[in-house]
From TrEMBL:
GO CC terms in record: cytoplasm
Top-level taxonomic group: Bacteria
Protein family per UniProt: Belongs to the EPSP synthase family.
Native organism: Thermolongibacillus altinsuensis
Keywords: Amino-acid biosynthesis, Aromatic amino acid biosynthesis, Cytoplasm, Transferase
Chemical reaction(s) catalysed: 3-phosphoshikimate + phosphoenolpyruvate = 5-O-(1-carboxyvinyl)-3-phosphoshikimate + phosphate
Residue ranges that the Swiss-Prot or TrEMBL entry lists as coiled coil: none
Pfam family, one: EPSP_synthase
Protein name as annotated: 3-phosphoshikimate 1-carboxyvinyltransferase
Residue intervals of the Enolpyruvate transferase domain: 7-423
Length: 429
């Protein structure tokens, strides 16, 4: 696909699609709850459709009409043994959270995904789930898909996770809901807390104490109505675009601003971006706001430590932002990037270099020197099948002089099917 380069201005108002993390959870929790769950502003990205497909294969009735979803929950005991393999597609969240649910189900299920999923470590959940009593087998002793699981009676666990991962935390809490006692998970830094918030909305007893979360076992969930806020990880592409493209002003409406997800806003502020956040509402469950960004003079910054889990999926687009900031930006403590849809340290560095960026990989992040005028002489860049790399490159092209072709742009539909429609609308604005 030929990308639009050297864009003069981006102007307008965008409603980014629903949050991916929250959409997955709404379907999963709805499926194992008792009663009918109504979901609005659901993300129709491929990852969330994989989650729906897996639960339908276990006998759950799910009606999906664009962004409206109705889940006929049957309770955990109402799931049935799938006659087909469960295909998680490209979705790490589906794989890991589903394993947590299946650990409590007394039947056999097989999980497969695409080539990217087959490279991502699943032992971070299969090991503790085995300790709780689930029978799991798979390639490389259960490290990689394909995986087979037979769940059943579970013991609780007190788990100290080596990584700040909401997927690990959520998988163990979901298993813990059905164990015989109290399960606790402690993480090194706080990861996104959508599971904790949504379990409460489904009537569960969840206790949060700093970095430790606990659930008592043998709990039942009760159906809830869930409104999914706009995904800040999708908004991030236009927050950066608005800051770096000349003559721009973009308002992003109804964006989720849960504090465990707003690291990107902290970084934009540190770098001097012209961003205003208005109309913050709904703070009890999942807070929302309208965010406006205007073209900005940017300065370099350092990003690491507890900030990393609060912006982990935004690092590719933050790397682009740093190429347009004066000075040296250092991103560290981010080795988790190596086990995402691609090794995002390697793919960000290789593809931005093709556009002339001064960027180098380190063991746990990258170093970016700015400000660089990006230029391309018929460059061919590649998403490598990673949606966030694809979107980052489309925004990079907006500030590049020359011609840029993007390979495998279709990956973007994993989390933001209307991305190019929104980008074009802002170019007309
Ligand atoms: O729980 C979630 O919904 C997610 C958690 C994060 O992964 P990790 O748990 O691996 O950090 C994030 O990168 C992913 O996009 C979604
Ligand atoms: C890492 C991501 O998702 P997942 O782990 O669900 O594949 C992402 O969306 O950037």
């Amino acid at each position: 696909m030929q990308l639009r380069t050297n864009v003069n201005s981006l102007k307008g108002e965008i409603y980014v699609p629903g949050d991916k993390s929250i959409s997955h959870r709404a379907v999963m929790f709805g499926a194992i709850a008792e009663g009918t769950t109504h979901i609005t502003n659901f993300l129709t990205g491929e990852d969330c459709l994989s989650t729906i497909d897996c639960f339908r294969k276990m006998g759950v009735r799910i009606e999906q009409n664009d962004t409206e979803v109705i889940v006929e929950g049957k309770g955990i005991a109402g799931l049935s043994e799938p006659t087909e393999v469960l295909n998680v597609g490209n979705s790490g969240t589906t794989t890991r959270l589903l394993l947590g649910i299946l650990a409590a189900c007394p039947f056999h299920a097989c999980l497969i995904g695409d080539d990217s999923i087959a490279k991502r470590p699943m032992d971070r959940v299969t090991k503790p789930l085995r300790q709780m009593g689930a029978h799991i087998d798979g390639r490389m002793n259960g490290r990689y898909t394909p995986l087979a699981i037979r769940g059943g009676a579970l013991q609780p666990i007190e788990y100290v996770s080596p990584v700040a991962s909401a997927q690990v935390k959520s998988a163990l809490l979901l298993a813990g809901l059905h164990a015989d006692g109290t399960t606790t998970v402690t993480e090194p830094h706080k990861s996104r807390d959508h599971t904790e918030r949504m379990l409460k909305a489904f009537g569960a007893d969840v206790h949060v104490d700093g970095l430790t979360v606990s659930v008592t076992g043998k709990q039942r969930l009760h159906a809830a109505d869930i409104y999914v806020p706009g995904d800040i990880s999708s908004a991030a592409f236009f927050l950066v675009a608005g800051a770096i493209v000349p003559n721009s002003e973009i308002t992003l409406k109804n964006v989720g601003v849960n504090p465990t997800r707003t690291g990107i806003l902290d970084v934009l502020a540190q770098m001097g971006a012209n961003v205003s956040i208005e109309n913050i509402r709904n703070e009890e469950s999942e807070p929302l706001a309208d965010i406006t960004v205007r073209t900005s003079e940017l300065k370099a910054t350092e990003i690491g430590g507890e900030l990393i889990p609060r912006l982990i999926d935004e690092i590719p687009i933050i790397a682009l932002l740093a190429t347009q900031a004066e000075g040296t930006t250092i991103i560290k403590d981010a080795s988790e990037l190596k086990v995402k849809e691609t090794d995002r340290i390697a793919t960000v560095v290789s593809e931005l270099r093709k556009l002339g960026a001064d960027i180098e990989a380190t063991d746990d992040g990258m170093i970016i020197r700015g400000k660089t005028k990006l230029r391309a002489n018929h460059a061919v860049v590649d998403s490598f099948g990673d949606h966030r790399i694809g979107m980052m490159l489309a925004i990079a092209a907006c500030v590049t002089e020359g011609e840029v072709t993007l390979q495998r742009p279709e990956a973007i539909a994993v989390s933001y099917p209307s991305f190019f429609a929104h980008l074009h609308a802002l170019q007309q604005g």
